[in-house]
Design a protein that fits this description.
Shape: rod-shaped
Number of strands: 10
CATH superfamily of the domain at 144-264: endopeptidase domain like (from Nostoc punctiforme)
Mean pLDDT: 78
Number of helices: 6
Radius of gyration: 65 Å
Strand order of the largest sheet: 5-10-6-7-8-9
Largest sheet: 6 strands, antiparallel
Helix content: 40-55%
Structural class: alpha+beta
CATH topology of the domain at 144-264: endopeptidase fold (from Nostoc punctiforme)
């Protein structure tokens, strides 16, 4: 006997399984009958471990589960990539559209600003032109001898010297005048011979508009050729004339008694 035979083993005795016990019982009888094949197997045939037949299905199921999970993960990753690609494409298109819209808005704003600047320039030029024409009219219609020169100054000076004298029908001076007598005497001072009566004086020169008067223009009331009253424009929107017996010779604004027309003889 070996010296170690009496030393108890530290391993726990393996408890035989039911199948092992049945197998051993069959072996004792000298033969083993298998239900799977219905064949008689010798008792000394190799016993296939129970654990091997039980572990294989477990391993196969785990592998299948792992493969399915891997497939799901791959599919999810592919889906995520596709979704991200679509989002990136949408963002890119939106950015391009926004950039295009911005460029169009800037272009439109520049066009509007250019249009407004052009309109402002034209308005300024028109205002300057109106101011220039107004200045020219003011210069042409400036009153008295300070702005008038030559014969015009002499004409206005004579008329102002007659202010306050009496109106007498048919008189031509020097102490009193009627309307046509005053204008005839005034133009005689500068060498211009006018007809004696208002009707003829209203056609003695070139017809001019009341919005384009110059100093020395003859104003008339009534129609040209049959006027019933005359006076002389002295500038500043005023005229001098022998009005009537109540007022005598006076200087009045045009709107005091707006004339019908005017003629220019200077």
């Amino acid at each position: 006997m070996s010296p170690n035979a009496l030393i108890p083993s530290h391993r726990k005795p393996r408890r035989p399984s039911a199948s092992s016990r049945a197998l051993r019982a069959g072996v004792t009888g000298g033969f083993l009958t298998l239900a799977v094949t219905g064949a008689t197997v010798p008792a000394n045939a190799a016993e296939k471990p129970v654990s091997e037949t039980q572990e294989m299905p477990t391993i196969t199921t785990a592998l299948a589960t792992s493969a399915a999970r891997s497939a799901d993960t791959a599919e999810q990753v592919a889906f995520n990539y596709e979704r991200q690609a679509l989002q990136d494409s949408a963002f890119s298109k939106a950015a391009k559209a926004a950039e295009k819209h911005k460029a169009e808005a800037v272009k439109k704003a520049k066009a509007e600003a250019k249009k407004k600047a052009e309109e402002a320039r034209k308005a300024k030029e028109a205002a300057q032109a109106r101011a220039s024409r107004s200045s020219e009219r003011s210069t042409l219609s400036a009153p008295s001898s300070s702005s008038a020169t030559g014969s015009t100054a002499a004409l206005v000076s004579f008329l102002k010297a007659q202010l306050g004298k009496a109106y007498v029908l048919g008189s031509s001076g020097p102490s009193s005048y009627d309307c046509s007598g005053l204008t005839q005497a005034a133009f005689n001072q500068i060498g211009i011979d006018l007809p004696r009566v208002s009707q003829d004086q209203s056609t003695a020169g070139t017809q001019v508009g009341l919005d384009n008067l110059q100093v020395g223009d003859i104003l008339y009331w009534g129609s040209a050729g049959s006027a019933y009253h005359v006076g002389v424009y002295v500038g500043g929107g005023k005229f001098i004339g022998a009005q009537n017996s109540s007022t005598g010779i006076v200087e009045r604004p045009l709107d005091y008694d707006m004339p019908t027309g005017a003629v220019r003889v200077l």
